[in-house]
Amino acid sequence: MFLLETARLASAWINRRLALTSERGATAVEYAVMVALIAAVIILAVIFLGRTTSSTFSCTGQTISTQGGTC
Fold first, then answer.
1. What pLDDT, on a 0 to 100 scale, did the predictor assign at position 30?
2. Dihedral sign computed on CA atoms, order 48, 50, 52, 54
3. Angle 12-16-22 (CA atoms, 0-180°, nearest 5)?
4. Confidence (pTM)
5. Which residues contact residue 38 at a Cβ distance below 8 angstroms, ignoring those fewer than 6 apart?
């Protein structure tokens, strides 16, 4: 009986302790880090694709202006 009551008190204390701690700040920080990483990936993708399409359009423009040939 004593052991059961001790377990109940320990469980109640743990539940109250968990209820007092808030993870809102940690969650907000995690979302901020995730948004920053997504933004970095998008920026890098735009830079890479911008350079690739720029060289493709330059090549196409040179080919059209010289009326043939390859890049």
1. 87
2. negative
3. 150
4. 0.49
5. none
Q: Going by C-beta distance under 8 Å and a sequence separation of 6 or more, which residues neighbour residue 70?
A: 63
The confidence band for 41, taking pLDDT boundaries of 50, 70 and 90, is very high
Distance CA 52, CA 60 (A): 12
How far apart, in Å, are the Cα atoms of 8 and each of 3, 16, 20, 60, 64?
9, 12, 18, 77, 83
Q: pLDDT over 90 for what percent of the chain?
A: 21
Q: Is 48 exposed, middle or buried (0-12, 13-18, 19+ CB in 10 A)?
A: exposed
Amino acid at 24: R
Q: pLDDT grade, residue 22 (50/70/90)?
A: low
